[in-house]
Design brief:
The chain is of the alpha+beta class and 637 residues long. 33% of the residues lie in helices and 29% in strands. The protein contains 17 helices and 28 strands. Strands 3-2-1-7-6-5-4 form a seven-stranded antiparallel beta sheet, with helices on both faces. Helix 6 runs antiparallel to helix 7, helix 6 runs parallel beside helix 9 and helix 11 packs antiparallel against helix 12. It is globular.
Length: 637
């Protein structure tokens, strides 16, 4: 066995610079950095920390020759806090952009005894410390403990060079994060503007504003409007869905600082919400138009959190919301042409595919004045087919145009045998190249060739609600695919998910208009009822299931555009014939038995004359259909 080759410090430093400008986080090259320092002569241990202006330590790491690199080991943060408190008293010298201090471990023990003990355990007797600035007002800290003073100057030089690397990487990452936040804010503002400007139902639009702001731009949000000289809560959202009910409850009962509708200052102030909500700060903006206070929009933030919208964004979104509320009284009727135009953006006929049943449902938001951008499609491919569904932000001619562009681009690539990932990336590039000011979400499911285990599928989402699989026994499984929305950033990242449909299993694709439907108490359908409803409807004919969903099942109101695409795998067809009615039941019974499952006598009442019978399925599930006199009915065994 050959001895491990140790890289030279210049080689390691060069590698760190390359990693720094490719990383999305300093965590990516932390291990390489710490292990590199451990290779320097006499180095026994390395400690690193990020220090907030408040003195909090969001990141602490320790590395030594015995245990390697460890992030946040037990007790390390507590050991470091005395250093943070006392380090301003240390004598330092400049090394590049770092402040360097030289101490013995005994000197460290005088004010940070547990930290000194950790260093002694690693074999250290002296310490070289480097402190340097980090992004957003934080500071970086690196402590290197050595077993002898020899080489301390080399370590100090190395720490100054490392500080240059970390500062450059931190600045680049912070700049990119700021740019991404601004892009997201611009996208949300564009969507908010379109929804507010075109909506006849302002309250529903304000709920959408709250949903769009969380979690991308705030940790929580709420909106109140003026009614009869009172400010009434319309909606609230929390980044942690488990705490959203708590937030709503505390707001309704006044357990917070309350709405602030008197001034125009937009600064973060204590929210006074109970600790169980986890939102310590809030930023309120008055909704005012033509000298009248119409409501208040409030964003909530965690203390020390990064999702804090800028003053300009809060002021802008509040102004747009106020104008929309004021103008809502000018809309007196909806345009019936919207529904017709909306439906023209959808495929008039979906392909018939062997062994597969497809159904769709669509609800047009009748209270809105312009066409929306929900769409769906099914595309044949050389080795299977792909189902897709999407939602273009906003409404009107531009949304309709982008809907056409999206469907044409994606479906053309799929028809030529391209992968869904490639189709979405090409659409994203085309939107950015053409400077399209809207974004869209998209989800696809690519189905392969059926095999012994069933019909294989690969699900993909680009900022869209993931598909849900409805098992033949009523079980509900949400796909684990994840991805970023289309038309905002250049490099899209996807996490596809593979699965298999057995005969009788179905999968549903839907737009957010379905999950944002509300029951009479104001609860979102997607938060409480989606999965139980799908389970209860699992054995219905797909057209009936789709119709029930978009019509609200009699329990909730689907007021926004909502598209539903359902696909059920029926398995192999073991019977497809036409027989006299008196022979039909026996033939269907024999076909079900041929699938390998015991079955009671079929009980369907058939009229006189000929009946077409089809039987699909496997040994666990069978679907028997009878077609007679233009009518179809079935039995599921």
């Amino acid at each position: 066995m050959t001895e491990r080759e140790v890289p030279t410090w210049p080689d390691l430093l060069h590698a760190l610079w390359r990693a720094a400008f490719a990383a999305g986080s300093t965590k990516v090259f932390a291990k390489e950095l710490y292990l590199g320092l451990l290779e320097l002569p006499h180095v026994r241990g390395v400690l690193g920390a990020r220090i907030r202006p408040s003195g909090d330590l969001p990141v602490v790491r320790w590395a030594d020759h015995d245990g390697g690199v460890r992030t946040g080991p037990a007790g390390l943060a507590a050991d470091v806090r005395p250093w943070v408190r006392n380090s301003p008293e240390l004598v330092t010298r400049d090394e590049g952009q770092a402040k360097i201090a030289d101490l013995t471990v005994d000197e460290v023990a005088a004010f940070a005894p547990h930290l000194a003990e950790r260093m002694r355990d690693a074999g250290g007797t002296v310490v070289v410390a480097a402190s340097f600035r980090a992004a957003e007002g934080d500071r970086g800290l690196l402590l290197v403990t050595m077993d002898a003073p020899a080489g301390a100057a080399t370590v100090a030089t190395a720490l100054g060079q490392i500080a240059d690397v970390v500062i450059a990487a931190d600045d680049r990452i912070a700049d990119q994060a700021l740019l991404d936040t601004r892009l997201a804010a611009d996208a949300v503002l564009a969507e908010v503007s379109l929804r507010l400007a075109r909506s006849l139902d302002v309250e529903e639009t304000l709920r959408a504003v709250v949903r769009m702001a969380v979690p991308g731009l705030a940790d929580g949000a709420a909106v109140h409007v003026q009614r009869d000289d009172k400010l009434v809560q319309i909606a609230a959202a929390h980044v942690d869905v488990r705490r959203e009910r708590l937030l709503n409850e505390h707001l309704r009962h006044g357990r917070w600082a309350g709405v602030q509708a008197s001034g125009d200052e937009i600064d973060a102030t204590p929210s006074l919400l109970p600790a169980d909500v986890g939102l310590e700060l809030m930023t309120s903006a008055v909704l005012r138009a033509r000298g009248r206070v119409l409501g208040v929009l409030t964003f909530f933030h965690r203390s020390g959190g990064r999702r804090v919208p800028t003053r300009e964004f809060v002021r802008d979104i509040a102004a747009r919301a106020a104008l929309a509320i004021d103008n809502a009284t000018l809309y007196s009727q909806r345009r019936a042409e919207v529904e017709e135009l909306q439906l023209h953006l959808l495929p008039s006929v979906l392909p018939e595919l062997p062994g597969v049943e497809i159904a769709t449902g669509y609800n047009v938001a009748g209270h809105l004045l312009e066409v929306g951008g929900d769409f769906y499609g099914v595309v044949r491919q050389p080795t299977g087919f792909t189902a897709l569904i999407g939602d273009v932000c906003g409404r009107g001619a531009a949304a309709a145009a982008l809907t056409g562009l999206a469907r044409h681009t994606v479906e053309t690539i799929l028809e030529e045998g391209g992968r869904a990932e490639d189709a979405v990336r090409l659409l994203n590039a085309k939107m950015l190249r053409n400077e399209v000011t809207k974004f869209l979400t998209l989800a696809t499911i690519t189905f392969g060739t059926p095999g012994p285990d069933g019909l294989p599928l690969r699900a993909l989402t680009a900022g869209h609600p993931p598909p849900i699989i409805i098992r033949r026994d009523g079980g509900i499984e949400e796909s684990t695919c994840r991805g970023q929305l289309v038309g905002v950033i250049e490099e899209l990242k996807f996490t596809p998910a593979d699965d298999v449909l057995r005969p009788g299993d179905a999968v549903i694709l839907f737009t957010d208009g379905l999950v944002e439907a509300r029951d009479p108490a104001g609860a979102f359908f997607g938060d409480t009822d989606l999965e139980p409803t799908l389970a209860a409807l699992h054995d219905l004919p797909l057209p009936r299931m789709a119709r029930t969903l978009v019509e609200g099942d009699g329990r909730y109101a689907v007021d926004d555009d909502a598209a539903v695409l359902l696909i059920r795998y029926r398995g192999d067809r073991v019977l497809d014939t036409t027989l006299p009615a008196e022979q039909a039941l026996d033939a269907a019974h024999a076909a079900v038995q041929a699938l390998g499952r015991p079955v009671d006598r079929l009980t369907t009442a058939l009229g006189p004359g000929e009946v077409r019978i089809t039987v699909d399925g496997d040994a666990e599930w069978a679907r028997v259909e009878f077609h007679q006199d233009g009518q179809t009915w079935w039995e599921i065994r």
